[in-house]
Amino acid sequence: MTGLAKADFGDDFTWGVAHASYQVEGAWDLDGKGPSIWDTFTHGGGRIKNHETGDVACDFYHRYQDDTSLVQELGFDAQRFSISWPRVQPDGRGAANAAGLDFYDRVVDDCLAKGVEPWVTLYHWDLPQALQDLGGWTNRSIVGWFEDYVGIVADRLGDRVKDWMVFNEPCSFLVVGHLLGYHAPGTRSLRKFLAATHHVNLSQAAAAQVLRAKVPDANVGTTHIVTPMRSKRDTERDRRAKASIDVIANRIFWEPNFGLGYPVDDCPLIAGIDKHIKPGDEEAITVDWDFVGVQYYQRQLVKPWPVPKLRGVPWMSHDYRSYEITAMGWEVQPDGLYESLERFAAYDKVPKLIITENGSAYPDTLVDGRVHDDRRTAFYRAHLAEVERAVADGLPVHGYFCWSLMDNFEWAEGYVPRFGLTHVDFDTQQRTIKDSGYWFQDFLGAQSTVPA
Ligand code: BGC
Questions:
Q1: Does some domain include residue 449?
Q2: Does a structural domain hold residue 1?
Q3: Is 73 a catalytic residue?
Q4: CATH code of the domain containing 143
Q5: What is the pLDDT at residue 316?
Q6: For residue 184, how far is its CA from the centre of ligand 1 (angstroms)?
Q7: Residue 319: burial class (beta carbons within 10 Å; 0-12, 13-18, 19+)
Q8: Is 169 a catalytic residue?
Q9: How far does the centroid of ligand 1 lie from the alpha carbon of residue 85, in Å?
């Protein structure tokens, strides 16, 4: 793994770091912000490790200037952050909260002043609780509510923000939040999952149109987690299981927007989605993305036996003996990233790919002001080698964002898994660049700030 060089990724390649509102901002009820489903979920008790919440998180709400300075210090071109819908519209509908919009205005201006491109995600899972009370994503009216919200944000930031992502990983909040119930809103229902999925797919297209209408020269995309599936054997039963889980974990969230409809034949379990499709939806749902954001963390091993509670869905697992495992219990398989890029590039409707998230959690320790996270550096080098291979093979890959700039609130896992290039002491809010951060600083050609 020698010879990784920034120049091999091309001149128009964006190097960035990513994070998300609920995971970093804190200030959960400040300056007019309304509650989100994650506020409700974490305050509800018993569902998050150590009963932790995002009430304070990394306090990015007050420390965004220092954090953007870190992005600059590490040599990245771009910072991907998300907008909290209930900070902008406390009830999810109606008039905008001026203080909320002002906050994002300041973040954008600060990025631009420091030569950091702001890449904005419009929805990274923190739905206004007031909308959840009306059914949330299961209520078809949400397509219009979302359109209005996107319009408000685009009107305010569109003169300066050119790079937009509509959703962060529909799979995660739809499967984990609506079908399995481990994330907010915590429902466990196939019916709700299917309704919400169709409304999210419609909202992707509606939001893309709003952005195109309001932001001249917008670079409009969305992001998807991609989980390549594998099985231990190659029997007919294994192949069928793999195809069906691939629909629920992957294809159902992106193929409708590519104009390919719902892949019901490969997964009859989703047939009920038909009930939610209205005349005209098939055309309305198609999107001409400028780019698709690929988020890759792991492959999964498909077990062909069904999970009883999930009405016959085959389930997934890991092979802990054959691969290195991260603190999340995920297998490290860098070539799965190449496989994911190759897979997306094969779709007609995908002109450009950006890796909008990739990263790993390890039990880091801060000793004498340093974090020697060699495993994370090795993880990044191995994955970047796969990206370099994809670029060399002519796949249209134009950017790479690390997850994450700093340790943050890792959803149901609380603050234990640390994904950052920067260590955060959550008692003092002290940031310390880890060795992996310094590795990027060197790789990206920024001036070294490694302590003597
Ligand atoms: C999400 C992030 C999350 C990361 C690590 C992605 O699925 O977009 O919010 O922290 O993975 O689990």
A1: no
A2: no
A3: no
A4: 3.20.20.80
A5: 74
A6: 14
A7: middle
A8: yes
A9: 18
- SS3 call for 121: strand
The predicted-structure confidence for 394-452, as pLDDT tens digits, reads as follows 999 999 999 999 999 999 999 999 999 999 999 999 999 999 999 999 999 999 999 98
Proportion of the chain above pLDDT 70, given as a percent: 97
pLDDT at 279: 98
Q: Is 361 in the pocket of ligand 1 (CB under 6 A)?
A: no
Provide the pairing of β-strand 313-317 with 300-307. Answer: antiparallel
Ligand 1 lined by 20 (C-beta under 6 Å): yes
CA distance 203 to 2: 44
Query: Is residue 311 very low, low, confident or very high in pLDDT (cuts 50, 70, 90)?
Result: low
Determine the distance from the C-alpha atom of residue 275 to the mean position of all C-alpha atoms in its chain, rounded to a whole number: 28
- 448 lies in some domain: no
User: Does residue 174 lie within any of the structural domains?
Assistant: yes
For residue 328, the ligand 1 atom closest to its alpha carbon is 12
How many structural domains are present in the chain?
1
Q: Of 25, 52, 117, 169, which residue is the catalytic one?
A: 169
Exposed (0-12), middle (13-18) or buried (19+): which is 353, by Cβ within 10 Å?
Answer: buried
Parent domain of 274: 6-443
Contact 357 CB / ligand 1 (< 6 Å): yes
- Confidence class of residue 317 from pLDDT cuts 50, 70 and 90? confident
Task: Summarize the confidence of residues 362-390 as an average pLDDT.
Answer: 98
